[in-house]
Structures are given as C-alpha cells and as structure tokens.
Amino acid sequence: MAITIKDVAKEAEVSIATVSLVIHNHKRISPETKLKVNRIIKELNYHPSRSARGLVFQKTGNIGFILTEDHFLRSEPFYTRVFIGTEFQARQYEYYILFTTISSTFQVGDKLPRFILERNVDGIIIAGKVPSAILDGLNKYNLPIAFADYYPPEGNYPVVMIDNISGGILAVQHLIGLKHKKIAFIGGDIEHPSIWDRFQGYKSGIEKSGIKFNPDYCITDTDCPNRENGYSSAKKLLEKSPDITAIFACNDAMAIGVMQYLKEKECSIPEDISLIGFDDVEADLSLDPPLSTIGVPKAELGIEAMRLMSDMLNNSITSPKKILVPVELVQRRSTGPANNDHL
Amino acid sequence: MAITIKDVAKEAEVSIATVSLVIHNHKRISPETKLKVNRIIKELNYHPSRSARGLVFQKTGNIGFILTEDHFLRSEPFYTRVFIGTEFQARQYEYYILFTTISSTFQVGDKLPRFILERNVDGIIIAGKVPSAILDGLNKYNLPIAFADYYPPEGNYPVVMIDNISGGILAVQHLIGLKHKKIAFIGGDIEHPSIWDRFQGYKSGIEKSGIKFNPDYCITDTDCPNRENGYSSAKKLLEKSPDITAIFACNDAMAIGVMQYLKEKECSIPEDISLIGFDDVEADLSLDPPLSTIGVPKAELGIEAMRLMSDMLNNSITSPKKILVPVELVQRRSTGPANNDHL
DNA sequence: TAATTTTGTTAAAACGTTTAACTGAGGGCT
DNA sequence: AGCCCTCAGTTAAACGTTTTAACAAAATTA
What we know:
Two copies of one chain form a homodimer.
Chain A: H1 5-12, H2 16-23, H3 31-44, H4 50-57, E1 62-68, H5 69-73, H6 78-92, E2 96-102, H7 114-117, E3 123-127, H8 132-139, E4 145-148, E5 159-162, H9 164-177, E6 183-187, H10 193-208, E7 218-220, H11 227-240, E8 246-249, H12 252-264, E9 274-276, E10 293-295, H13 298-313, E11 322-325, E12 328-330
Parallel strand pairs in A: 1-2, 1-3, 3-4, 4-5, 5-11, 6-7, 6-8, 8-9
Antiparallel strand pairs in A: 10-12
Helix pairs in contact in A: 1-2, 1-3, 6-13, 9-10, 11-12
Chain A binds a DNA duplex through helix 2 and helix 4.
C-alpha cells in the first residue's frame, strides 16, 4: 500500500541498497545517481518506515514519559505543562513521547509500562515523585532515565529541579522589602523535597535579614498541600499568632485556601496581611486580589529533562547532570507594604 | 541485548515458530509444549518487540493526536484534558498516543506530522479546529480519522461534539427558573460552530419559555472569546441595556471578564446581576463568587474519540458516527434569584 | 599492456516477528 | 500392507530497512 524503498528503487532503476545509501548520504554515490534518486524520493513522497528502521537500529525514536496517576489526575495542570515542554523539545530532536501513568502505589512485581516491556522506547523521563519500587523494575532494562521535579533517594540520575530554595528566599525577601517582619510559613507534605526546600529558603531568607526564626509562625504538616489544608492551617496560624503581617504559603493551592480563610475573617489582603504563594498556577489571576507568587517555568522542566535525555542517547555520557531551573517573583496585588510599623 | 523470541526458543528447545504459536494460542500446540514455553517466557520475562510486530502486521499500535499550536499553548488546558481522555482510553485498548501540534496557518504543501510520513500511526485523532489544508494532506494516506470538538465543513468523518445547544438551553432555563426575564448573551468568535450553537441554545431556551428574543441583550462579535473581550462586551452591554438581570457568557473566560467589569461597577453578583458561563474551567472555583457554569466533560470528548477510532480500526465500519457528549449545569454562587419582580 | 587502485553499484545478511506450507509420526480404515 | 487422516511441530518466506562484503568497471600507475 504505502511507498517503500523498493518502489523508489524500481522507479529510479537502481537497487534498494543504492537508495538507502543515497538517503544516508554515503560518499561513494555518483552525483547523477544521487540526484535522480532524490528526485524520485520526492516525487513519490517516500519516507523510510519507523518500524523497519527500528528493527535494524534497535532504536525506536520514542521516549517514555511516566507520571503517577494522582499527579496526572489532579486538576492543576502542573505536570501537564512539564509534559508539554518535553513534547516540544522531543519534536526538535525528532523523537516522539509515549506517555503513560503508573499507580502511585506501584509495588515490586507489578507490571511495568507496556512500552518498556515491548522495547518501544529508547529512554525514560519520569516527572514528579514515583514509588521507588518502579525504579527497581526499570533498572533491569538499563534504559537511560532522567527525572524532572523529583529526585529519587537512591541512585545517581540526571535530574532537573526547580530552584526551590532560591524561590523561598525570593518570597521572603520580597516581603521583607515591603517592611514585613512577622512572616509566617504554611506548608503541607513538608517532607516532600521540594516543599522542604521552600521551607529552608524561607528560613535562610529571614535569617539573612537578621530576623529570628520563630517556630510559632510556621504551620507545617504532612497532609496534602491543597486548598483545604491551606484553610485549616491559616486558621491554626491566626489562632496561635494573630500578630503576623505576612504569610508565605508553600504553594498556590494552599495560598488560595489561606485567602479564603482570611476573607471569611474579614481580614483584608494586602492591607492587613500580605500573602504570597509558590507555583504561579492559572487560578492566581482570577483571585481577588490576584495572588503574588513565585513563578516556576513548568515547561522548562520538561525541556531540560528532554535535553538531558538527548545527551544520554547520543552518549556524550558525562556524569549525570543536575540542573536547577530558575524561579522568579511574580508580583501581583496580594502583597503590599507592612503596616506593622505604627503598631 | 534484550530477550528475543530466539532466546526463548533455544531455552525451551523448540523452534521460534513454536514460540510464536504459543504466544498466539494456536490450536495445534500440545498442552505440554504450551506449558513449557509459557514457563520460559515468564522466566525470561520475554515480550515481543513492537518494531518487529509492526513490520509484519503493518500496524504500529500508535494513534496520532493532532492539535493546532495555539490550542496547545493557550493557558486554559481544555484540549489537554481531551488529550488525557484519549490517552486513558488508548491505554485500555493497548494503543499509544503520539502527540503533535501543527501550525494554525497550515498550508497545502506544508510538511505533515512526521508520524504520518513515517507510517508510525494507525489512525489520527484531531482535536479542535484545524486548517482544512491539512485534511487534504491527510486524506492521501487514507488513515482513519476521528474528530473531537470540531467538525470539518467538508467530508464525512466520525466526530465527537459537546452538546452545545442543550448547554445553552440549560443555562437560560436555570436563569429562568430563578425568575430572570431580561437575560443577556455575550459571545465572541460567534461564527465558531460551538459558540454559535450555544447562542442558538440561548435563543431557543428563552423562546421556549415565552420570552421574546431581544437583540439589544446580545453582544456578539468575531473576536477571540477571552477575558478582555468579556470585559469590553460587558461594558457595551450595560451601556446599551442597563436593565438586564442576568448574563449568559458563551464561555468562562469571557464570564471572568464580565465579572471583573461588574465588580468595578460595584454591581454585586448575584444580587444585582446573575452570571453564568460555559466550560467549567479550573479558575471558576477561585472566583468570588464562584462561577456558575455549564460543565463539559472534557476527558469524555477524548475518550469517545478514541472509542470511535478503535471501532474504525477493528473495521466494524458502520457509517461515520456522530456523538454528542452531554453537558450539565454546575450551580455555584454567581447565579441567584432575580430581584426584578419588585421593580 | 598489465597490474593496481579507485569508484559506483549490488547481493545478501541481519534486525525480530508471523504464518502458510510443509514434514513425519502415529493412528485408524479398508 | 497400503492408504489417508490428524496431530505437533518446523522450515522458510515475508515485512522494510541498513550495511558490509563483493564485484565490475573505470581510472591510474608502472
């Protein structure tokens, strides 16, 4: 049905070997033949079949992209953006992405993604936290693996991370620049490396400015860092420390919950309390007031991960690189000058 | 490197043909052989290679998913959700999705997605409006094509659409149920089939209730139906018809713009004016008040498109089906009882 | 002119799988 | 015994491509 190398060969009155050599720009092909064959190729609109090439080269031209189900299904499209970045960069490198999810309760012995078993990928990009059991499974296939926004506790892999510590520092420095001194931190899932780092950034940011760290200003737990948790944490915080003038929430989802609580308490933002989040999600703009936050380049995470992958595949195998993608302050209207001076 | 059928054959002391026949559950294999081979397969963790199978069957096990760049890049992840649905359903059918974007200014003669040229897909799903030039290109490859949320003006394809007309009716009936009588419609890109249908639903909804259609209550143009357009359309509307008590915006993006304008005018929602959108985007929940809207099952669009594709591939080729996925009223706090009765 | 090198092309094997056609062994029938 | 089945498994060709070794012809050298 489809045009094959045979059709081209017949039409150009040469062997299929010659056609193949022309395609690969082999030196020992006469200019006339090259011209003629190339003409026919264009005429017939011939393109070599992926499957056939895959067989010969033992390369598929595909990269597997793995996400856990709960990351995939959650409404905020953070990892979708990462995927978008990966896909974009893959296209530049002439790769295709095969996407799949795995259960977040993956156990040793569970079935690996089909694209691995069928050898349908040349490498794997993993975005977000995954159960370590899957890594044991993957390692048997010694495919190159790169991580985005997660760093497995064991093993030494190339990885792309958000510069969470700098982000934390940036957030509190912004608040300090507005003369805030009593700055609170709210964070769920505090043991997650990214959130932990934001917390570290918070601490180091305030201490750098000579403000003493006050544990009463910090509400942290290991629950999911979502809106509900933000709401209840804000409640706890204000009951314990009603004197704070600014809140840094570990992500925007929690910040939105905080905002909801503050509104109900008729506490106006930013006049009474300034609020800053982290992530720069879509919803921030629709809030009233729009939420100041730390913007993270989500697509960039995916792009860089794919770059790392490409490096590995063209085995310019240096040691596994770690890349930190920079964050930026996104100043909107939920942060303003402190009014604690006159107290 | 990887385990092949040969390794299994050698280990089981049979020919590779036998192994293959065991895998395909061929009748003429003795139970003992079947058992033995299956044991070895499990032992070696053998899985047939996609590439090799693809060559033989002339099937890749991949489906191409095409989106225009601007649909892909826009911040509201509508089509991303459609993709998610497709991917989910594809996994059920043991397909993989190859994703790509095309330029929204695709011209006849432009290069088609690589997965088509390289015959790396068995079928194509197209989401959202695409330039018709690409269809001319695609048709040469006679691959099965299914559409989601767009219906090309020419040709007869299986397609999945949102039930926009019912959605429009649903929205105005909700408002009418709240005793509203002066109900406005705001819509950009009014010639887009989906938006046009919502407008038709609006008209038929109010006329069904015996309310006369009033063109002064309708602000429509062909600009992009986004927040800015919503803002300016709301302005136009209220300058022309300040007596309206409810607004149905053709989508949530415009509704958010409308809300912004109303707030600036110190017009309270829903006490002074009720507002309902269409789409149920993420941001709706973060608005103050949260936006009532018509919810559309985005993933469902993708799921159904993949179902159609699967039907075509297993050539249970009935005539090209059209599927309408149902919408639902999502009642939040931006709509309330009309207070026009006492005027 | 003969020997050698260079140049351009091709035949054939290989990649991993499927499957139609085939082979032999063991019955069961005349 | 001779014939024909059936059963269980194998051989070999095919899918579309790449690539190496082989080859023929042309060009160069001696």
